[in-house]
Amino acid sequence: MDFFDKAGIMTIGTRFRMLNEKMTEDANKIYPMYNVDMKPKWFPVFYIVSKEGEKSITEIANQIGHSHPSVSKIVREMINHKVLSEKKDKNDGRKNNIRLTAKGKQIADRIEDQYADVKKAVAKILDQSKFNMWYAIEEFEMLLEQKSLLQRVKEEKKYREAKKIQIVPYDPKYNESFKRLNQEWIETYFEMEEADHKALDNPEKYIIDKGGKILFALYENEPVGVCALIKMENHEYDFELAKMAVLPKMKGKGIGYLLGKSVIEEAKSLGAQKLYLESNTILKPAIQLYKKLGFQKVIGFFTPYARCNIQMGLEIKKNIDINYR
Amino acid sequence: MDFFDKAGIMTIGTRFRMLNEKMTEDANKIYPMYNVDMKPKWFPVFYIVSKEGEKSITEIANQIGHSHPSVSKIVREMINHKVLSEKKDKNDGRKNNIRLTAKGKQIADRIEDQYADVKKAVAKILDQSKFNMWYAIEEFEMLLEQKSLLQRVKEEKKYREAKKIQIVPYDPKYNESFKRLNQEWIETYFEMEEADHKALDNPEKYIIDKGGKILFALYENEPVGVCALIKMENHEYDFELAKMAVLPKMKGKGIGYLLGKSVIEEAKSLGAQKLYLESNTILKPAIQLYKKLGFQKVIGFFTPYARCNIQMGLEIKKNIDINYR
DNA sequence: TATATTTACGTAATTAGTTACGTAAATAAC
DNA sequence: GTTATTTACGTAACTAATTACGTAAATATA
């Protein structure tokens, strides 16, 4: 139907249901042709018990991919129709062992011809198909197992949104955002300190004028993330990566990574060789990000921040300049 | 799963359900990612109304392939969530026109990104597949529309059973069957006549000894069908095809056609050129069969049978003997 | 114009599955 | 050996669809 093509995968449920209804309707007429007292919904249970012999409710449920209450109900129906019989397990009083009755065995016998006929009929359909539905479903299930639809959609979303993020250099008009974004997370986990106030209230004086940089991430022209590069004087490290913040509702879009990468590039272009940063181990996603950017734990440096309990460093690799000429 | 491969198409319902459950679970998590107040089961209704504007309950139901009560309930839920609004049709008081509210329009707007992301995610799965599931289902549906599973299974059954049918020549041990099979249908529709008794009680004398033939159809070595070829003396036609009968519960397996073909072959090998038969038009399947065998209506011959209201004839074509030497 | 049929759609009952929960038996942990 | 946890499975409640049915409006028919 046209609707399915337009609306796509989100309607797969309806499509499956309709196809299944058609098949069930036919199955309902096929069983009597073989003189078999069977309902389509009984079939999976019947098949397992007839092919593999006595089985408990849970074993059947696991094999056919139903919940155990479903099997319990189907088995009850089939017992009422004298197709199955039940018997408590001798060694395990919880188990209810299910097996075919004489009538069930008779059905198993008669149904063999039906299996053969249905298999041939379906094989002919699939042979005529360019895209074998049986294999297609198997393949689809396999690919979803490797990576779920949810995961795949998340990736597409992240990718699409990342393209909408712009990294721009410092501009006084973002001063208020610079403070707000940082204050937000600092006050969530810690308290604002002396050094915070200095840098956040006057970035121009304390960061830019001292040879540092500030980069902003814009989403639809609104600042949603920030990261600063602060010049370190008389220090083994050239710059400190600091004041990194991302708007909470914009997390998970790779903005932090993008800012980090950009700041490192910036440092490189300023001739920096070693970057330094301070953080706290309760900020797990941040530490994770720093590691992803290449930072490793270092020790022994002085810090003015009370909240700092981890220090990290990164050696910037020079680009290897391959000259093909 | 192994179970599906072994048990085949009769478990397609379970397989569809499981795949659908997995997708629905993911869909439930995907909608909130886009800030959209939507349930997977609402989606088809939402899609139609958002893309095509105001629509009545039945129109929606037809387009998305649900029953109208289903749409009625879903719409009620969506109205409670302020996603849709309803309004009686001005010109037709039975109709309930459904459209998006402001909130619904906002959702339609937000969901566009989701469509794009989901489409890309699915496209990547299908591109990786050797058998494209979307096309595969479409193809399968199309092939089932051309000929239903039921029809296909019937054909396979007929073919398999036809192979189990043997056509054998007259043997006195089948005398009782010869009478029973014919008496059965004659007494169902008519009454036994003088000529019936003669032929059925003494086939050897009245048919075989006069240069005629009787063929039996055996199914698992039991006679289930019969047809006689009666020599016609001083007549334009060489033989009469008569006393054709098939056991009622064995109908629909092509036994009649097989007997007819065999009898015609037999006649040909006896040098016959024209066959004749008598019947009654209330026996529609029989007349149908005679036509299929090549008989055509003829008129004006004498008959001893009261039940005869149609006479038919067949000119036997000689095999064209192509000699390649 | 009156009457019969068809159409739209809401409510109720049914179906085939699910999850939630409780109980009893078996097994593991201390 | 007692206690805690896990397992088996039945019952109850829920879900998302269906079919069945009734009513009212619209349309066709005589």
TrEMBL record, chains A, B:
Gene3D superfamilies, sorted: 3.40.630.30, Winged helix-like DNA-binding domain superfamily/Winged helix DNA-binding domain
Sequence ranges assigned to domain N-acetyltransferase in this UniProt record: 165-317
Coiled-coil regions listed in the entry: none
GO terms assigned for molecular function: acyltransferase activity, transferring groups other than amino-acyl groups; DNA-binding transcription factor activity
InterPro entries in the cross-refs: Acetyltransferase_Enz, Acyl_CoA_acyltransferase, GNAT_dom, HTH_MarR-typ, WH-like_DNA-bd_sf, WH_DNA-bd_sf
HTH marR-type domain location: 9-149
One family name in Pfam for this protein: MarR_2
This protein's name: MarR family transcriptional regulator
Organism of this sequence: Aquimarina algicola
